[in-house]
Amino acid sequence: MPGKRKIGRPLKGRSEDGEPVAVSRFPRLTVIMEQPVKDRLEALSSITGKPAYQIIREALESHLAALPAEDRRLVDAQARRMQEHRAAKA
Predict the structure, then answer these.
(1) Is this structure's pTM higher than 0.85?
(2) Residue 6 lies in a domain
(3) Domain range for 52
(4) Exposure string for 16-47, b = 16+ CB within 10 A, e = fewer
(5) 63 located within any domain
(6) Nearest to 41 by CA among 29, 28, 54, 24
(7) Across all residues in the chain, what is the average pLDDT?
(8) Does the residue 7 lie in any domain?
């Protein structure tokens, strides 16, 4: 059926800057959630045609944007330290 999205993980994703990247290169994350929440995430993915990781990323960005500026700075600073630590270990 033309235009129908295949079930499963897409072969390519997009990085935060919009560049194509192989989804297999993304780190994996296991999330525990209630079944109704998972059902809504899967339904939203199906309706919008966006993979779940993109929906979750957009929700996180929206949540961060709603934080006070000082809290966003703290989150960004800690995330940078985590990235630097990971890079130093590699």
Answers:
(1) no
(2) no
(3) 12-89
(4) eeeeeeeeeeeeeeeeeeeeeeeeebeeebee
(5) yes
(6) 54
(7) 88
(8) no
